[in-house]
Amino acid sequence: MHLDRNFVKNLSPSLAGLLPHGGIKTIAEKVGCQPLTARNAVHGASTNELVVKEALKALLLLDIGIRAVFEKIPMADIEKLREEVRLEALGAAT
Fold first, then answer.
1. Distance between CA atoms of 83 and 49, rounded to whole angstroms?
2. Three-state secondary structure readout of the chain
3. Is 31 exposed, middle or buried (0-12, 13-18, 19+ CB in 10 A)?
4. Cis peptide before 35, with omega less than 30 degrees from 0?
5. Does the N terminus or the C terminus of the chain have fewer Cβ atoms within 10 A?
6. For residue 47, what are the contacts with CB-CB under 8 A and spacing of at least 6?
7. Measured at the alpha carbon of residue 78, what is the angle toward residues 76 and 80, in degrees to the nearest 5?
8. Residues 1-56: pLDDT tens digits?
9. How far are the Cα atoms of 10, 25, 32, 72 from residue 37, in angstroms, in the given order?
10. What's the pLDDT at 1?
């Protein structure tokens, strides 16, 4: 996997923006680097593939948890929520 700073910078939404509160500190502790080093890597200011991989793993775990919650909600309710979100986004764009 080629996870250099340009790859990270071009992600939308940003990798750093999706991490939970304290995620950068947790990643830094896990890989054994300074929090500033991890912060720079997830913001695309520097290249540290190990940090970026850990950030992607953290997001994957979040995704698994989110999917587990949504699997318990009836599809009709999810579609209603999806429509509400779409309409709110259109209202915010005007």
1. 38
2. CCCCHHHHHCCCCCHHHHCCCCHHHHHHHHHCCCHHHHHHHHCCCCCCHHHHHHHHHHHHHHHHHHHHHHCCCCHHHHHHHHHHHHHHHHHHHC
3. middle
4. no
5. C
6. 3, 4, 5, 41
7. 70
8. 678 888 888 888 889 999 999 999 999 999 999 999 999 999 999 999 999 999 99
9. 19, 10, 10, 39
10. 66
State the number of CA atoms in the 13 A half-sphere of 88 facing the CB. Answer: 6
What type of residue sits at position 5?
R
**If you count them, how many residues does the chain have?**
94
What are the structure tokens assigned to 56, written together? 């992607």
pLDDT at 93: 63
Q: What is the pTM of this model?
A: 0.81
